[in-house]
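Note on ligand handling. Small-molecule inputs were canonicalized before submission; formal charges were left as drawn, and no protonation-state enumeration was performed. Where a ligand contained multiple stereocentres, the stereochemistry in the source SMILES was retained. For adenosine-5'-triphosphate, this procedure yielded the string shown in the input block below.
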Amino acid sequence: MNPSATEYAIDVQKLNKHFGDKHVVNDVSLQVAHGEIFGFLGPNGSGKTTSIRLMCGLLTPDSGTGTCLGYDIIRESAQIKRNVGYMTQRFSYWDDLTIRENLDFIARLYDMPNRRETVDHALESLGLASRADQLTGALSGGWKQRLALAACMLHKPKLLLLDEPTAGVDPTARRDFWEELHRLAAQGISVLVSTHYMDEAERCHKLAYIAYGKLIAQGTAKEVIDSQDLTTWAIHGDRLSELSEQLRTMPGVDQTVVFGSALHASGKDHAALEKAVQQAAAGKDLRIEPIDTGLEDVFIYMMSRSSDNYGMPS
Ligand SMILES: Nc1ncnc2c1ncn2[C@@H]1O[C@H](COP(=O)(O)OP(=O)(O)OP(=O)(O)O)[C@@H](O)[C@H]1O
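Structure output:
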């Protein structure tokens, strides 16, 4: 199939994967448009890595269909592997080679023509040129992750699959990394990225939330927030954890979470929630205000409502 003729960079329907009796990926369908940054979120062990591996042909689904860059995920996995950039969770380059040597090695693996120019260009475009001769083992987490991105971009893929690329990386390096992702997306490169960071989720064009193998919500951040139809109140003052305990027992309060100096109380029954918050705050030195429900409120809500179906017959 001609990849440029397809509407989506990734288009998969009803993917399923079991490991033993664990239903690790459960009827997952999703589409990633060209030039889109698509965030993949969910608790540890929810099936993000497995889904990514199914989409790029590294694992075969038990059932389901789909294409990645226009190639069939079951029959054309070799073409997919050649055309996507996949950054795994673990940094997998050689510590005792320099940055240039690591990139040169990858270029050899892909049997690339003009290796020297390709590596020079990668070093330049990701700001690695000044460190080209530094040993990889001596690099900070942020620089290692930049090298990993350069390596998976070397063969000029049209799609990047990034599995928690910024885990353990400091905020400045994470910001730089995301600026780079947006530059790539502006050039038409699609990105599917898994993350546990809320600020990163907010930088994605679209999101999907997966728990226990099931996609619970997907869309823009606003669509994901709206899908849960939660109202949220913020409560400021002292002894918030005590108040949180009290609120949780009251009708209309589906969730309480402390965020820094504020307690967020959320619920689906808007009137009952307001009544509960006002009752709980009455006569106390507290400030209460309705606020926009945030992505984090919604993710915590979805996670607490999703049930563990692993090990259950399906
Ligand atoms: N090869 C395998 N054999 C057996 N079980 C596996 C295998 N790979 C993954 N699993 C199990 O499948 C489930 C989903 O794992 P997966 O790595 O896809 O989740 P994840 O969402 O990427 O997690 P994390 O956020 O921790 O990286 C987990 O319970 C994991 O232990």
